Amino acid sequence: MSPPLPSITGLIRYDSHLSQVGRRTPASGPARLDALLSGYQDIAPLSGEDAAALPTEIVHAALIIAFHRDYRHNIRFPDPAKSSIHNEMIQFVDSVEKATSLRG
């Protein structure tokens, strides 16, 4: 028996938080997140629970990428030119948390 497929809502949550991480720019912060979520809402509205979980999901994805970058460029394949690239993700997490706290 095949495992159950994730719900559409679960796929949207997954896609949207990875989209935010992939298009990170701390300067665009809340405006970019609002535009992305607005587009998703037009196609498949998020439940209140899913919308509330997005900031946490986005932060989770960014921290996983930060860990991967730190491990890759400082331990596995040391590269001084990229040794601090993981800090971009940490700054991005800070911007998401700040935008979320400003919204209440």
How would you describe what is shown here?
The radius of gyration is 16 Å and the shape is elongated. It has 104 residues and is mainly alpha-helical. It contains four helices and no strands. It has one domain. The chain has helices spanning 8-22, 29-43, 48-76, 87-103. 73% of the residues lie in helices and 0% in strands. The mean pLDDT is 74. Helix 1 (8-22) packs antiparallel against helix 2.
Keyword list:
104 residues, mainly alpha, 0% strand, elongated
Q: What is the number of E strands?
A: 0
C-alpha Rg, in Å? 16 Å
Helix fraction bin = over 70%
Structural class: mainly alpha
Sheet bearing the most strands, described? none
Mean pLDDT: 74
Give the SSE layout.
Blueprint: H1 8-22, H2 29-43, H3 48-76, H4 87-103
In short:
The chain is an all-alpha fold and 104 residues long. The chain is built from four helices and no strands.
